[in-house]
Amino acid sequence: MPELPEVECVRRSLEPVLIGRTLREVLRHRPDVVRGDANAHGLSRGQRIERLVRHGKQLALVGRGPGGTTGCVVAHLGMSGQLRWASAPANPAPKHTHVVWRFDQGELRFTDPRRFGGVWVFPSLEAAYTARWAELGPDALSVTPARLHRALSRTTRMLKPALLDQAVVAGLGNIYVDELLFGARLRPTLQANAVTPAQAGSLTRRMKTLLSRAIRAGGSTLRDYVDGTGSAGGYQLAHRVYGRAGQRCLRRGCGVDLASSTLAGRTTVYCPACQG
DNA sequence: CTGGTCTCCTGATCGC
DNA sequence: TGCGATCAGGAGACCA
After folding, report:
1. Mean per-residue pLDDT, A237-250
2. Chain B nucleotides with an atom closer than 7 Å to a protein C-beta
3. How confident is the model at residue A36 (pLDDT cuts 50, 70, 90)?
4. Which of A12, A92, A112, A152 has the smallest C-beta neighbourhood within 10 Å, fewest atoms?
5. Same topology for domains A4-133 and A145-270, yes or no?
6. For chain A, what are the domain ranges?
7. What is the per-residue pLDDT for A1?
């Protein structure tokens, strides 16, 4: 479910409740959801949560223990994953709760019905960077026009699949790519290496405003997304193409019916008149 | 290297 | 009320 704005909202909502808390125990109800270095524990008992770091759609919880030990857990929410804070422990855990981090008061739960997401454990944030985040492109909120242009110019793929590729730019998913391409008035099927530096500049700027607005609105809640404290988002009300196939284009003076097709296995909605 | 198709899962929704 | 088909915010494997 979650793309960059939703994961950032989870990060921001969890920060105030998690920072400084001391971990008591970790319950792995479904151990196969936890992956990573066999020698790594991720976060261990006695460590305090130091910070929460996001890159693209992934969120790292960074811990530090009294003896200077470090720990790191990276969550990737996939389609249906959630990280939720609860001020009181629950026994038994709610359905599809795969991992629980128990603190002095309250607990953090990773739940994921479809299990497309997961949790990766590392000995430190640095280890997570080299082992897991190194293959990701720059975060969509900090990518530069030059960097985006260079990445796009290196591939003959269509623009939408290229932007969905987390190695090109990290954070975009199906909703925000469609919204971005509509705003930038570019065809999803445009060849990525045909994007001009000026268009890459426009894409970069629009990407940041789009994602920032979505974050400010609390993300997009289509069916079950909520942030770390259970709040739903409101940005779905601002979608201009996603979920609107067959309805009229909202651009002033257009009014053409939005078209839908499948690209890279994903439903793609665009305006045949405005885009391209 | 590319796009298309399938797969991993569960659950909501729709038509019969 | 039940039942099957279809679809879903992600991503990676395989194939031609």
Report:
1. 97
2. 1-12
3. confident
4. A92
5. no
6. 4-133, 145-270
7. 67
The question of whether A3 is a catalytic residue gets the answer yes
Question: C1' nearest to CA of A96: which nucleotide?
Answer: B10
Is residue A154 among the annotated active site residues? no
pLDDT tens sequence across A98-124: 999 999 999 999 999 999 999 999 999
The domain defined by A145-270 folds into Helicase, Ruva Protein; domain 3 (1.10.8)
Instruction: State whether CATH 3.30.470.20 applies to domain A4-133.
Output: no
Question: Catalytic: which of A11, A54, A57, A206?
Answer: A57
The pLDDT tens digits of the residues spanning A123-168 come to 999 999 999 999 999 999 999 999 999 999 999 999 999 999 999 9
